[in-house]
Amino acid sequence: MTAKNLQEVLDQAGNTVELLRNSQLGAYIYPVVPAEFTNWRREQIAWQTTAVLYDQTHHMVNLFVSGPDAIKLFSDTGINSFANFPVDSAKQFVPCAPEGGVIGDGILFRLAEEELVWVGRAPVANYLLFKASKDYNVDVRKDERSPSRPYGKKVTRDLWRFQIQGPRAWEVIEKLNGGPVEQLKFFRMSYMNIAGERVRTLRHGMAGAPGLEIWGPFESYEKIREAILEAGREFGLEPVGSRAYSSNTLESGWIPSPLPAVYTSPGLREYREWLPADSYEATNAIAGSFVSDNIEDYYTNPYELGYGNFVKFDHDFIGRDALAAIDPKTQRRKVTLAWNPEDVTKLLASPVDPEGPGYQFFDLPNANYGPSNFDRVEDADGNLVGLSMFTGYSANERSALSLATVDPNVPLGAEVRVIWGEPDGGSRKPTVQPHKQLAVRAIVSPVPYSKMARETYQPGWRTSQTV
Question: Which pLDDT band, with edges at 50, 70 and 90, does 127 fall under?
Answer without folding.
Answer: very high
